[in-house]
Amino acid sequence: MTTTPDDGPRDAVTAPAEPLAHGLRPRHLTMMGLGSAIGAGLFLGSGEAIATAGPAVLVSYAVAGAIVVAVMRMLAEMASATPASGSFSVYAEMALGRWAGFLLGWLYWFMLIMVLGVEVTGVAEIVSGWWPVVPQWAVAAAVVAVLGGINLVGVRQFGEAEFWFALVKVGAIVAFLAVGLLIVLGVIPVAGSVLGDWAAHGGFAPAGVPGVAAGLLAVAFAFGGVEIVAIAAAEAHDPRDAVARATRTILWRILFFYLGSVAVVVALVPWDDADALTSPFVAVLELAGLDGAARLMEVVVVLALLSAFNAQVYGTSRMLFSLGERRDAPAPVTWVSRRDVPWVSVLVSVFFGVVAVLLNWLLPDALLSVLLNAVGSALIVVWFLIAVSQLRLRPRLEAAAARTGEPMRLRMWAYPWLTWATLAALVGLAVLMLSDAAARAQLLATAGLVVVILGAYLVRRRMAARRAAVAGPQVGA
């Protein structure tokens, strides 16, 4: 591993070699990206966004989607040139210094750990509602044991499980779009939809530009999760080609699925019908006269949560492994099994996911709310530093490609102007968050978490300096 000063960027543009398997294929990466981004946030959370902005929420989704597409293109450029299980944490370290890699690695790990707890709790509540005799803790324990075990068996097995999980979700979205299109075309006659009657409900933008802005806050984080493609690229066959191919396809598919689904909902369901928007997909299916729609969507949501949990155990374990490789986490997290799985990192992530579940049940209105607020806007920090890293690394990546004679597999569009425009959009999003009370609380809590992580970095750095001073100069140094 290349050694660098604690506060300086790496001189190289290659990540350290990692003793991990290469069992993932492009189809795994593609479905992992789709599955991670398409979850309960779309199936259930879209109703809140529609209630905020009305049909103009489509503009909110388009703007947020454009930001995410640009950020992911930047990340894919770096990942196709330098695959690493630490992904954007490694690239931030290369571009900005050890502090940036430490911050992004631990911030992302903490964010996903908290989300793990929420997802397991959601699955347990839904399944216990189906079979009241089964306690929630038993469902949660079964989910953790089965999906944690899948992650321990091997990366190929994880990839296959996530592929089929995601395929079910994508199939549900495609079926929903087909039903919605048939209703819109009049093939399935319905009564009670608002198609062609938006004027009676305040028009396309009933809340005006402020509503679109508020809707943007509600949807900005719905696309979170697609970045797992860059993390998983390090364990793919031909990582550079795999991440380039996967990224080219999934971004536009995600935008199509999100915008298409929400367009169907706003075309058929009144934006001011609070009851219908508690589960907008169910409302559309009930319009079509599909009996059992609510239970069907509950099954899809459970699968969405299981898929997200599975993917995030993977993401947290690989990020923790990468931090250990860079000596920013305890050395045992770098231990790998005979199948080249970082089993200690997997177990640590699962353990803290269980801790998050317990917090979710024991402290729903106290500590947990503070922690969830802290991760609510963490993606803003992640996306911002990804853009800054790409801005700094692009000239170095081009120089490395010129030296080796191997062209870059994928490039950011309109560099550097689109990167600067994306940074400006992220700053604008943060300013919007400050104007909203709930979003402001999230942003301030995230700022507090960033300060805590950077404080831990400074403590670690000082302790390392003291150990080096005690050890004295080494022979051959």
Describe this entry's structure for a reader.
- This protein is mainly α and 477 residues long.
- The protein has one domain (26-470): Amino acid/polyamine transporter I, CATH 1.20.1740.
- It is built from 19 helices and no strands.
- It has helices at residues 26-37, 40-43, 46-53, 57-81, 88-96, 98-130, 136-153, 155-184, 208-219, 228-232, 239-268, 274-277, 280-287, 293-325, 343-362, 367-376, 378-404, 417-434, 437-471.
- Helix 4 (57-81) runs parallel beside helix 9 and helix 6 (98-130) crosses helix 15 (343-362).
- The longest helix has 35 residues, at 437-471.
- It is globular and about 80 Å long.
Characteristics:
single chain, 477 residues, mainly alpha, Amino acid/polyamine transporter I, 71% helix
